[in-house]
Amino acid sequence: MQVIDNDVAPALLTSSTVSIAIAVLVMAGAAALALFYFVAAPQPLRGAGVLPSSHWLLGDTMLVNKVKNEGSSIFEWPEWQRSYGPRFLNLSLAGGARVLLVNDPEAAHRIFFDHGRFVAHEHWLNASAAHHEAIVTLEGPQWYHQRKVVARAFLPQNQRAFLRAADATLSEYLRGLLRGAAAGGVVDFDVVAFMSLYCNVAAAAMFSVDCLAVDSLLAGRKSELLVDADHVFAALERLVTIPKHMWPLLVDRATLARLRESSRRCHALAFDMLAARKGGVLPAATMAERARLAGDAKAYPFRQLPRAEGVADFLDVMIEAQREEETEAAAAAAAAAAGDGVAAPAAGASAPPGSSSSGSSTGALTDAQIAGNAISLIIASTETSAHTTSWLLWAVLRFARGASAPTSLEELSEAHLYGSLGEGGAAKGAAGVRGTLPGGAPWRTAAGAGEDAFPETPVWDRIRAEVAAVVGSTLDSPLRWEHLERLQYVEGCIRETLRLYNTVPFIGRQATEDCEVGGLHIPKGTVLAFNAPAMHTDEANYAHPFRFVPERWMAPRGSGNDAAAATSAGGLAAGATIASAAVIDADEPSVELEPGLSVPVSALRLKAAKGGFAAFGGGPKTCIGSKTAILQIKAAIVRFAQAFSHLRLAPGTPPVVPLATVTVRPRSSIKMQGKVA
Ligand code: HEM
Asked: pTM surpassing 0.90?
């Protein structure tokens, strides 16, 4: 028998107690995880596909993160649809969230428009509300009220003023870019600068404020406002797939701290813009709100731009709406008081319009709500419009003659990932340019023509022809409101870019009750994420989905819209990838994609109007700025087309990798060169 020494016994006892405690803890942990998996974690919905990669504990979180971090992701989501779930696909994320990927236009349409049953999902609302409160962060009566007011800023009479201001900023930028360059000379530009450009456009055109001098913009500097907008997007990227209660565990503190700081600075700017517009004085309650939301943050320096007499910008429109609502509330309260002679006026209702604007006592929009929506409009319009413009200019090159038009998803993604732009693309010398992608994958551009060659770009030729015919061929030609509708080919290019590069790729809704969609039982709380990249490249929705065919979106001749006729005069002869793409007069108009291949227009966009085009979302909560977005991108393309006769990638530019985050952006900037017209 073994004799245990008296001195050793307590030590043995202690170590075995520790071992037992550890074993118990491990078993309890395993039991908790098993419980979480079998009870808390949602099981896949019957009737929807399942990704084979689901992790037993983390679900598809790792896959989604891999897709987010390793690029080419915009091409992965359509693959999932093709391989695992043609109409619906289960996705489960860490923390027990049940997510259903919707690949089916009819189902998407139903979900968009049944706003009572499907609201913006809580992950999105929580993530964006961590920065500011505005229509984008709200649902229910609050959302409805604010959306109605903000929508007034988007009426045509206000958009005219927007166009003038946006065009002034865009033209100033282009003139700066061309400074000192002779016709035929080559000018470099970097599409990352478009973020600064559109941030300036948004601040100037909506709020008559200048945040960054154009020379700084041309020197590649960012405005402080844009730095903060970048923080917001970086944080959104992290937060939007993680339930709020998991943020402290899964989101690094630095991201959350930066978000808080940028929120304060943006609020400081918005409140100061408002104060400047309201004569410098804001009511005490508004100042208390400013202190709550902005703390002691200082607004960055901004210059108030001169405004023509009687021309309202978006801030004026919101202030005017606030005054009207206050006046109505005051009148209603007075009438109620006079009616029975007894009822006391509602709190604040007897105050003169404008003086109670810091509280919701009248039900009118508050100053804080105006500030929140101002921030929102700037942030929502900057990155989205900038990337869409970048992708459009990239598409001009990607679908150039010489670069074979991809006909399959594989070809499209392959070309993006590994260069191979063909003639005159990124190639430098006979051997092409080599490099390594972040993560180590090698890339090489195709060998092609030398640095001096500009590729043939029929899409650009046709854009230029339309711009020359409708607006004029020089930067001095005034761009008028009436021109916009006639720029049909340019608009087709914008929509086609949004279809293929879908700048805001993943949006969603959440079911407020158990219901049924497309034959599938959807439990309350399910997040429904629209797989727009898949819907936009599904042959069932768009014939020849991988071709860039702006004519998909153009009204046929004789439809009362003469734009197609006006534009066909100049540019059609350019031919090339989309060959002599012409809208042909016939009973059923068709487009000739290449010699011998004509396709009816109706087949080119089969389900665009039925949920199959989700670039701006859909239903009552659709993008409020969709028309404004098209307007400002059109204005930018007009000015670029007047400035540059030809475009190419700057030599040595690495392959363009579309990275799908909150927006789809190129992994590294696309450096371009333009030949001065
Ligand atoms: C190409 C540019 C743009 C794209 C692709 C885009 C896309 C989107 C998408 C997909 C949504 C979500 C819609 C939904 O859930 O159904 C959205 C919402 C929104 N967008 Fe845009 N957007 C663009 C430009 C703009 C511009 C220029 C503005 C403002 C001037 C703007 C303001 C907003 C606002 C305020 C919301 C929230 C609406 C609400 O929740 O009621 N966007 N946008």
From this structure: no
